[in-house]
Amino acid sequence: MKKVLLLLVLSGCLFSCVKKEETNAETKTETSEKKDFKMYEMSEMSILMEQMYAENMVLKDRIKKGDTIGQFPQHFLEIHKAVMTDEKENDAFFKEQAKKFIKAQELIYQDPKNAKEHFNNGVDACLSCHEVKCGGPIPRIKKLYIE
Fold first, then answer.
1. 17 and 89 both lie in a single domain
2. 115-132 and 44-65 are packed helices; what angle lies between their axes, rounded to 10 degrees?
3. Minimal CA–CA distance to 145: which of 57, 50, 70?
4. Structural domain includes residue 147
5. Whole-angstrom Cα distance, residue 113 to residue 4?
6. Which residues contact 117 (CB under 8 A, 6 or more apart)?
7. Mean residue pLDDT across the chain
8. What is the DSSP string of 5-41?
9. 72 lies in which domain range?
10. How many structural domains comprise the chain?
């Protein structure tokens, strides 16, 4: 009886070791396949737009609460020269929409009594451009509206 039990325990150890080796071989194959994966790098424009989105979410809260707004973030002006993923997208249409966006943003700080209206005009400018150029962020942009 002891011999049978010992044989079962040893067999179990041997088979469990074989499975671990197979698993390790599979992991090695998966790891070598992942080396071909290339990380997406955001363009200067993408990074700038992410910053503008985050800052506008904060600004939206300030406007809704009636808090002081502060000063126009000068780095928003980088929209005119930030490098895009596809430089062909930096055309006359984009440049016009960027001007509208900047004008609306500046008006928020120059005319805080009508900040909500100016803010929503800035959101409109974003949407107008993204409806033509890059539709991906549209649902996110719509969340900026102040109702």
1. no
2. 150
3. 57
4. no
5. 88
6. none
7. 82
8. HHHHHHHHHHHHHHHHHHHHHHHHHHHHHHTT-----
9. 44-142
10. 2
Task: Decide: pTM greater than 0.85.
Answer: no
Cβ 127 vs Cβ 53: under 8 Å:
no
Percentage above 70 pLDDT, the chain: 76
At 87 the pLDDT is 87
Residue pair 59/104 in contact (Cβ under 8 Å)? The answer is: no
Q: Cα–Cα–Cα angle for 130, 134, 138, nearest 5°?
A: 55
Q: Please indicate, yes or no, whether residues 102 and 135 belong to a single structural domain of this protein.
A: yes
The answer to whether the CB of 130 falls within 8 A of the CB of 137 is yes
The answer to whether residues 52 and 104 belong to one domain is: yes
Q: Are 45 and 84 in contact (CB under 8 A)?
A: yes
> Per residue in 99-147, pLDDT tens?
999 999 999 999 999 999 999 999 999 999 899 988 888 999 999 999 9
111: in domain: yes
Tokens for 20?
Answer: 């671990």
φ, ψ (nearest 5 deg) of residue 15: -70, -35
